[in-house]
Amino acid sequence: MLNNTFTSQSLAILLWNANGLANHRNELITSLNEKRIDIAFISETHFTSNSKCSFPGYNTFSSCHPDNTAHGGAAIIIRSSLQFTAAPPVNNDFLQAAIVNINLNHVPITVAAAYCPPKHKITSSQFDSFFNSLGRYFIVGGDLNAKNQTWGCHSTNPKGHSLFQSITSNHLTILNPPNPTYWPTSTRKRPDILDIFVTKIPTNLNHLIKNLLNPSSDHTPVFLSLDGHPSSKPNKACLTNNSTNWNKFREIINSKINLNISLKTPNEVEDAVQNFTESIQSAAWNSSTIQKYHANSHSTPTHVRKLITQKRRARARWQRTRLPSDKNLLNNLASSLKRMLSKIRNESFNNWTSSLTAESGSLWRATRSCLKQKTAQAPLKNSNGTWCKTDKDQADAFCSHLSKVFQPHNDINNNHLDTNIENSLFSPLPLYLAPKPFSPNEVQYYIKSFPLKKSPGLDLITAEVARQLPKKAIIHLTHILNSILRLSYMPLQWKVSVIILFPKPGKPPDIPSSYRPISLLPFFSKLCEKLIIKRISQLINDKNIIPHTQFGFRNKHSTIHQIHRLTDAIAYSFENKLYCSAVLLDVAQAFDKVWHTGLLYKLKQFLPPPYFLFFKSYLENRHFVTKVGSEFSNLAPILAGVPQGAISSPILYNIYAADQPISLNTSVAEFADDKIIFTSNENPLVASQHLQNHLNEMEVWYSNWKIKINNEKSSHITFTLRQGVVPPVSLANKIIPSTTKVKYLGLLLDKRLTWAEHIKQKRLLLNSRRKSLYPLLGKQSKLNLKNKLLLYKTLLKPIWTYGIQLWGTAKKSNIYKMQTFQSITLRIITNAPFYVTNHTLHSDLGLPTVAEVATSSYKRYRSRLTNHPNPLILALTSANIPGNPPRRLKRRWCRDLDT
């Protein structure tokens, strides 16, 4: 049976030894689209760990040679619309294999692209081990360099003998093409069959196998068609699309909403929330038409088709005659086809870039495509060490890992304090007035304040859907929210989060802890939180619950303010010949390990009873599910931590950490969970002792409130121009590692505060990002100059301008490094000839130099500090360094930018 039309009714497989895949990319793309291939098995990719080769509409999984040089290797290229799960690759010197798990007729089957280098021996037991690792059913395809007359070869070699033994003992099947696949250039070598399939598949699957002539290398491809039905990925779940009729949506909602309902008990609130959610979902689905998926048509131009036909005929002729003249003709046609495909691709890219505009959003979609790191879905290990084979397995593995994360540090105990806290929580609450109810206008205002592009929670309701709600629905929602406030009860449905996970850069991708969880909460849950937080924010400010040293998640507070405080202390120490010693503390899973009982105790100290009881209900009985692809894990409880992604989480964490001990001999700078303690003294022993005393107090506080510190990730640094050494300090009897440079809130500080290391690292980052954007910024790009400058100002310039108010006083040699980056980038953007000066470029484009940006940025920054409500930030407006030390050094400080 041969049916490789794009109907998902059969599985179309291409097997090909590319002998260097990158050189044949354009030709392979054409073949994949023309023949509508579902899976391509590629041998001899010549990939390394740094290789990048993508195919539109497909995912690529590769296996490199273990020596990581450009030879050997295998890859699987699988259509993105199919449902699949990556498996760990095999990287041996005698066998490389890329492996993916799919479903065929709802039966799990493993597909593997393999390559066996000719110079390495492989035994039948090694073949057995490989085949047995693939599971019950599998399809292995590749150039195994195994010849055996059983599958049509002219002779049998040792690999072919070993493979035959393994096939016989394991009851496997060989699917070989009818004609040779390897065509050596030398006429003294005989063509032979090297590219074959080794299979173990259900007997009800019929197949057809044949040789192809395109794409071409020294091997011809093999086409295999199986009449199985491959499972496709389901469409993304959503309530609306571009066809949604919003007038009809509002009419349906109005017909379903009943304002005359009782909302006096938690159960009635639950039922009202459930009915309201279902009404919105039903109205949205009934107002939207299902949009059918249309595959992108990749029509090949007529002149390219003619050239492909000529090349195919020339290859067939050469394979018949083996004449040098026919080989020359084939080579010429192959070169012409490669040049033509490259030209078409370049013309298509130029047309695309010339059509990009910022107004339509196409420019920003293009930049995201350039900057987004395309990481293939990596295989994942369970906690027991086995590999996950399906999306459901991966979702359960992530759920199991996060269930352990969302628990308090129960190994830290203070029985006396725990008892006092529990007694306080169970003590009766004072009498209180009912809180002021929400108004429909207030609810409508906050709905409009939410951004439209945020992902929905489990109920699929987005801010866009909420904005389209009619007035009757807003009134009904207001009644529900007021009943929640009156009863101090958060509905269970709004306490379930969907967690999706993204790999952390530079971490091993097969471990669940190497992934960053992103929590998606129901929209109305976030709306409710926003309304509540608005009510209690003024109370928190009036009672000074959050200390002035905490700048994180607070209005009119930024990271630059906090770093400025630290650099002022360093400047004072340098001018007075002091040692400024500092400790940066890294809290282990700070937001995920907040002890709920302790947080409620602290909330009860100042919140009116209705709001305290609301947060008590808000934190209790929270659950989450993890999502991988379209699969969900089972429901799991959240026993600790402030809800990730929630509106109230930052302020709840600040409240939990608000009562940390302070010392007269040290200063503290905090931004959420990033904490630094610093002190200055002319005696290094005294400086160390002051730090140690404060750390001893912090150790007691951490123990009381069940918080752990990562000593390995914490740092101890001394900023000084003197030669003395500050003794090390410890926390919980563990020495905190000493270092000569630290990264704090995005700026890299070295012990002499030269900013050289920070500028060096930023320059490397900028070079890398400019390289990623080069297709849009380079001289080959047809993007107009206005849009190129816009990309530079929005995607590159903010990287180096961050913190320039402080590092802008670095030495001219360091500033020059950043200035050369800007000059080179402007020259690339404009494609300016060598005789155009950098001054002319800056002048004509209206861009200031780096030094000018530093001066103007500091002046704007300082002008905004006046009349600040935080006295610590207000102190930064002084004309001199706080403490007014005598200026003995020639170096400049940030205030010198204002002179």
UniProtKB/TrEMBL annotation:
Residues 483-749 form the Reverse transcriptase domain. One of its GO terms (molecular function) is RNA-directed DNA polymerase activity. The keyword Transferase applies. The keyword NADP does not apply. Keywords: Nucleotidyltransferase, RNA-directed DNA polymerase, Transferase. PROSITE patterns: RT_POL. This is Putative RNA-directed DNA polymerase. It comes from Schizaphis graminum. The lineage of its organism: Eukaryota, Metazoa, Ecdysozoa, Arthropoda, Hexapoda.
